[in-house]
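Title: Prediction job returns without error message
Component: structure pipeline
Severity: low
Priority: P3
Assignee: unassigned

Description:
Job completed but the reporter wants confirmation the result is attached to the right record. Sequence as submitted:
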Amino acid sequence: MDGPEFDAHQVDFDEMLKRMGAFKEIERNEIHKLDHQDVCEATKAIKEADDRNAPWREALRKSMKAKERTDIPRVKMNELDPEYRSHSRKEEVNQGLTAEQAVTEAKRCLDCANPGKILSFLLMPFVTRMMTTGSYGAADLIQQTGNVIIPIAFLCVNSAALRFSMDKAERKSDVFTVGVRVTLVGFLAFLLFAYPISLIKINDFKLGDYLVLIYVFVLTSGFRQLCQQFVRGSGHVKLFAIDGILATVTYLLFTMLFLGVFKWGVTGYILAIVASDFCSVLFFTVTAKLYRYVRFKGVRRQTGRDMLRYCVPMIPTIILWWIINVSDRYMVTYFVGSSANGLYSAASKIPNLVIMCASVFTDAWQLSAVDEYNNKDTARFFSKIFRVYCGGTFFVASFLILTCKIITKVLVADAYFDS
């Protein structure tokens, strides 16, 4: 069966369970092969070949341009004929790729890079030299305030857009239209709180001085997250990846323009994010033709109710996340001032390197975790991974502690060295 559109009463669950376990013993034997020494040597060779400057990567770059490589259509997995496989449990449905197909698929994605996380650190020397500690602390509070308002005002509808745009039973136009409506209605409701927000003052930081910036930031970032998750859920993974690079580049350019050329300080810092998010929304609207998914009538009410039932329960999680990860910025500002918060925000960039390394590790092993979950060696597998993860995290953290003064000297301006 394919997709959710079937009558469960017609499913032979005994047959289904037999099919699910038909190749379990073969899979278990293949996993045990990983314990051999030759596999470890092969793994070492793979790691060496994975280097960005490996000879095969250099040859690949010379033989084909990046645009030509990304334009290659994704190869479809060869499968058994549905009529044949319905009467047999001795052969796997997925037949794998031919050598020619594997080479074609490998050309499409083997040399991909992810510069977004690295480029965000490259801006720190420039930003800290263009802004005082007080201005940087105020900009950080504005950004963090906007980030916590977005999921509350817009009811985490971007998460629902991702989930329901992947559902074949739902019309994508209904999903996107519901997302747009919730975002607009949430923003109008947020406008009602303009006066109370303008009265909030934390030590020397007055939120009302940046009220317009906060509203513009919330609206553009909210729409960008909605478009981003809808495009991702709709299967436009290539556009999603391109947007990540585009957003990084535009943010760099706007930051240099608004801070370096115009000297706009806090306003320039936030407007750089707003302008970058707006470019992303425009990019998705044009390339993914999102305007085709906006409906003014005929939207299924059940889709809206289902999306809200899915996303509204996430709001308490966001609030708790804010308390754990962001509330300390407000406490520092309240007790010491926005200048101290600027130092604190700059100092947090170095520990974030640990989080970056951990996220890279998590992305690499999470699929293996799912595959290994029901095997009898699950406990041993998870224990090994946990030891490697803890050891790696300890090593990175120790290295940062040892070299934090050197990194701080390079990463931020002299006025921030106390951080």
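Comment from assignee: result matches the submitted record. The chain has 22 helices and four strands.
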